[in-house]
Design brief:
5-stranded mixed sheet, 4-stranded antiparallel sheet, 39% strand, globular
């Protein structure tokens, strides 16, 4: 399992084996089936928004896409995976970096859920992102049943 090392080094941030090990242990300790299997079970706090990024296509499955919120690393995605992050209210850029870059500009509101599907197309050297596409809560529930939580 890759835990951000590749993407963090791409932006010249320091990353050590200890940090990767800490992130892995933290994720494993906070894993719950309710959190990963139902979008309805995802709770946004009253002062933060909840962002769910789903990459439900297996096309280009082994290629890691690095995801950022306003240039801050928030997670990686591979084929058939998804991840969840809390976001401060306000306007933010969600960026996916791979052979190319996909950007979504969103105005997050506290207490609301935001579901984005990450598109994938064939690239010259590796898979490319075709951008982000909004999803409904029902579409997200269906999509994450076949995906792995990262």
């Amino acid at each position: 399992m890759r835990l951000g090392g590749f993407c963090l080094r791409r932006f010249n941030e320091t990353c050590s084996f200890a940090n990767d090990l800490y992130r892995f242990a933290y994720r494993m300790c906070n894993y719950t089936d309710d959190q990963t299997r139902t979008a309805a079970g995802l709770a946004a706090t009253s002062d933060l928004a909840l962002l769910v990024i789903v990459r439900d296509s297996f096309f280009g499955g082994g290629i890691v896409f690095c995801n950022y919120l306003d240039a801050k690393f928030i997670g990686e995605s591979m084929g058939k995976t998804y991840f969840i992050t809390h976001v401060q209210p306000g306007e933010h850029y969600v960026v996916s970096a791979t052979e190319n870059t996909g950007v979504a500009h969103l105005n997050f509101q506290a207490g609301k859920h935001y579901f984005l599907r990450q598109g994938v197309t064939m690239g010259l050297w590796r898979a490319r992102t075709s951008g982000f596409f909004p999803m409904t809560a029902e579409e997200t529930k269906k999509a994450i049943r076949t995906c792995t939580y990262l």
